[in-house]
Amino acid sequence: DVKVTQSSRYLVKRTGEKVFLECVQDMDHENMFWYRQDPGLGLRLIYFSYDVKMKEKGDIPEGYSVSREKKERFSLILESASTNQTSMYLCASKQELIYGYTFGSGTRLTVV
Amino acid sequence: GNSVTQMEGPVTLSEEAFLTINCTYTATGYPSLFWYVQYPGEGLQLLLKATKADDKGSNKGFEATYRKETTSFHLEKGSVQVSDSAVYFCALSDNNFNKFYFGSGTKLNVKP
């Protein structure tokens, strides 16, 4: 069974900390995505990547960066965490010619 | 631009009731349309999809028809079960840019 694995289900960090959220997919997909999910706002795209070392800003990139050094791994980085970044973070991957995402189980991040 | 609007929840139904969750979209070009489901504590799973006008997507008793004339993709199920309780997201894919746009989600509660 194909998988997108996010390293943590729950995370609590302090304001100002640097936070790394890791995502690994085992499907050899080219496209990977980071979303945040907030009540009433649905899913909002933070960053995405079409290939290794390639990244594109989504709709809400401010306060975030990403890293894709290997095809299977896409990391989301909060350079200096703030309380308004408390959210559920979802990673997804998609193969070029196949429609639809495969999602990870999500990381619920709380910044205190 | 591209956007998806779906009915606000929560929707509360009794078991075996008929379900409709409305979804309308705005898009340039010819998008593909999707319904995703999120069970408690999990990531999103693809429920069904339709890639062109008049296509009907179906899965697990759920159906949705791609209506270009009304720019709609309403989700229906003839007889819901308690196990269908989840959050349902309508989404469209801009095929030119490989990006997805999600609605805000509709929570469905099915009571025995």
Largest interface: A-B, 24 and 20 residues
From the helix content, strand content and strand pairing of chain B, which structural class follows? mainly beta
Supply the helix-strand structural class of chain A. Answer: mainly beta
Q: Would you count the extended β strands of chain B for me?
A: 12
Mean pLDDT of chain B: 92
Low-confidence stretches of chain A: none
Indicate the mean pLDDT of chain A. Answer: 91
Percent of residues of chain B in beta strands?
over 45%
User: Termini separation of chain A (Å)?
Assistant: 36 Å
Bin the helical content of chain B.
under 10%
Order of helices and strands of chain B: EEEEEEEEEEEE
Rough outline of chain A: globular
As a percent range, the share of strand residues of chain A is over 45%
How many helices of chain B? The count is 0
Question: For the report, how would you describe the main beta sheet of chain A?
Answer: 7 strands, mixed
Task: Note the total helix count of chain A.
Answer: 0
Description:
- The complex is a heterodimer of chains A (112) and B (112).
- Chain A is mainly beta and 112 residues long.
- Helices cover 0% and strands 53% of the residues of chain A.
- Chain A is built from no helices and twelve strands.
- Chain A has strands at 4-6, 10-13, 19-21, 23-25, 31-38, 42-49, 56-57, 64-70, 73-78, 87-94, 102-103, 107-111.
- In chain A, strands 2, 5, 6, 7, 10, 11 and 12 form a seven-stranded mixed β-sheet that branches. A three-stranded antiparallel β-sheet of chain A has the order 3-9-8, with no helix packed on it. Chain A has a two-stranded antiparallel sheet with strand order 1-4.
- The N and C termini of chain A lie far apart (36 Å).
- Chain B is built from no helices and twelve strands.
- Chain B has strands at residues 3-6, 11-14, 19-21, 23-26, 32-38, 44-50, 56-59, 62-65, 75-77, 86-94, 99-102, 106-111.
- In chain B, the strands form three sheets. In chain B, strands 2, 5, 6, 10, 11 and 12 form a six-stranded mixed β-sheet that branches. Chain B has a four-stranded antiparallel β-sheet with strand order 3-9-8-7, with no helix packed on it. A two-stranded antiparallel ribbon of chain B has the order 1-4.
- The interface between A and B is medium-sized, with 24 and 20 residues.
